[in-house]
């Protein structure tokens, strides 16, 4: 086992761009942390794929991230957190965390009537992972899950602000709106990008939980507990071409890797993150 | 080089289910042919991915299909036809054909004003392959391309008959409708499943070309020319568990392979094909 240092980066991965909403929260809440992000743009989306493929993909990505001397790994993807976290956590000699437990913890804290909605990909909802985790935290909690498979392409193809998004939201969420849930988890990292429209559609009676925010808070606790929280140091090694400094609000050094072309990834990332990614590097993830 | 027989199957592949619209046409027009279909459900969609990944995927699939003693291969995917056909054709010792040349040939035959629209994935449109091929066939032809990335998820998530499909069609095709094209190619194998709605939207002035139909006709010519057309023989070898006979309108034996779970694939296939697929087999395509 390698001995990690505070200045070592955090590894973050997702099937594509969705995990950038988690990255954004980590940048905000842990502005001194260095990060290595991997977006699996060659194999996106994960939400319609099988458990064993998602586990295989996650293992490859973790092997890749470990070549970057990361001190901890965040699976910034609900589908991979639901299907692969339990398995890969056991196999990995550094901490690996997902987005589901933090999101579930926030939802049980927020709800007053113990009735919680969860929206996500087909694979996430079918796994019932949010229900299982919340049932452990709050026995008797009632959970209503709803897969919303069109939300990811709606976001990725730039329709989040188009009126088509409203119709798709109505199509998927009419039953949630009519139910008596008081809390709903945005159980896919793309969904925070539809947050304001979903909030407007559901009205004041339903509180939305964004696991990204909670994940960054949990990550801070985890690093603090292991005495690995970076409170200001730089990486202390030669920076590579693709590494770059963030602005004042995000002081770390950030590296972005993808498994397919980066054009769309960069464009998307630059619309989400608090600064412009200048370079990304493409790797062949099947080699790991 | 293996010596192929008339009763050997035709290999057909696509990124997922879209190629089944081509399979359907082959079943209709060449009802005695046996077929081995591969749907790359683990790596779908292709339309947003890079040329070198599409070439790598196509090579692996061709290697897999050749283990099934196929006598010819149809790339039943516009994106792979646009990006990989030229390369893989040269490397393969049996005929490999795509859907673009047949679709292009039909469009130049149909047009009266030499103004043709093409809709497809981002990768297909960006490749300008339809334009290049049509320009060779009809110098001076004017081609207007339009990527429609949301059409694939709209079809795959079952929205083809929902009014959301109409709005998405209006979003992408308003400019086509206002242009003076008289012919438009459905340049993605999913799009024939939106054909009636697109036709209704565009009106009588624009003729739609479905390359699937033309591809099956070209395939017949190709097989005939090589004296490999199957006019009634069975495969003449032990059938495997996954092989099955079609109904009267499709007399061949058909095998279906996928690279991820088959549930959705089967459900979708059974809504498109003239009979129910009972079994599919999953393979690890990365091993080829």
TrEMBL record, chains A, B:
Keywords per UniProt: Cell shape, Cell wall biogenesis/degradation, Isomerase, Peptidoglycan synthesis
GO terms, biological process: cell wall organization; peptidoglycan biosynthetic process; regulation of cell shape
Domain of life: Bacteria
Chain sites annotated for binding substrate: 14-15, 46-47, 78-79, 189-190
Pathway: Cell wall biogenesis; peptidoglycan biosynthesis
Active site residues per record: 77 (proton donor/acceptor), 188 (proton donor/acceptor)
EC number: 5.1.1.3
Catalysed reactions listed for this entry: L-glutamate = D-glutamate
GO molecular function, one term: glutamate racemase activity
Family from the record: Belongs to the aspartate/glutamate racemases family.
HAMAP family referenced in this protein's UniProt entry, alphabetically: Glu_racemase (MF_00258)
NCBIfam families found in the cross-reference section: glut_race
Annotated function: Provides the (R)-glutamate required for cell wall biosynthesis.
Protein's recorded name: Glutamate racemase
Organism from which the protein derives: Sellimonas intestinalis
Gene that encodes it: murI
């Amino acid at each position: 086992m390698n001995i990690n240092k505070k200045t070592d980066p955090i590894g973050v991965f997702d099937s594509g761009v969705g995990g950038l909403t988690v990255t954004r929260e980590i940048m905000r809440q842990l502005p001194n942390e260095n990060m290595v992000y991997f977006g699996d743009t060659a194999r996106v989306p994960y939400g319609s794929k099988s458990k064993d493929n998602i586990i295989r993909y996650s293992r490859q990505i973790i092997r890749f991230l470990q070549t970057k001397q990361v001190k901890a790994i965040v699976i910034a993807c609900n589908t991979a957190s639901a299907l692969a976290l339990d398995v890969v956590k056991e196999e990995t000699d550094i901490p690996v965390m997902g987005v589901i437990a933090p999101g579930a913890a926030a939802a049980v804290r927020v709800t007053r009537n113990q009735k919680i909605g969860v929206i996500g990909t087909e694979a996430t909802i079918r796994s019932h992972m949010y229900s299982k985790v919340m049932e452990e935290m709050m026995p008797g909690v009632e959970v209503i899950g709803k897969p919303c498979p069109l939300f990811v392409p709606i976001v990725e193809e730039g329709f989040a602000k188009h009126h088509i998004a409203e119709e798709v939201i109505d199509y998927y969420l009419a039953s949630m709106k009519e139910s008596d849930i008081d809390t709903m988890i945005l159980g896919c990292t793309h969904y925070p990008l539809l947050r304001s429209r979903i909030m407007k559609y559901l009205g004041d009676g339903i509180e939305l939980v964004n696991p990204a925010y909670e994940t960054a808070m949990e990550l801070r606790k985890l690093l603090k507990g292991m005495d690995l929280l970076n409170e200001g140091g730089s990486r202390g090694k030669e920076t590579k071409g693709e590494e770059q400094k963030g602005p004042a609000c995000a002081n770390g050094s950030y590296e972005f890797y993808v498994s397919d072309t980066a054009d769309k990834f960069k464009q998307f990332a630059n619309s989400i993150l608090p600064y412009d990614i200048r370079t990304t590097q493409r790797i062949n993830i099947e080699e790991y």
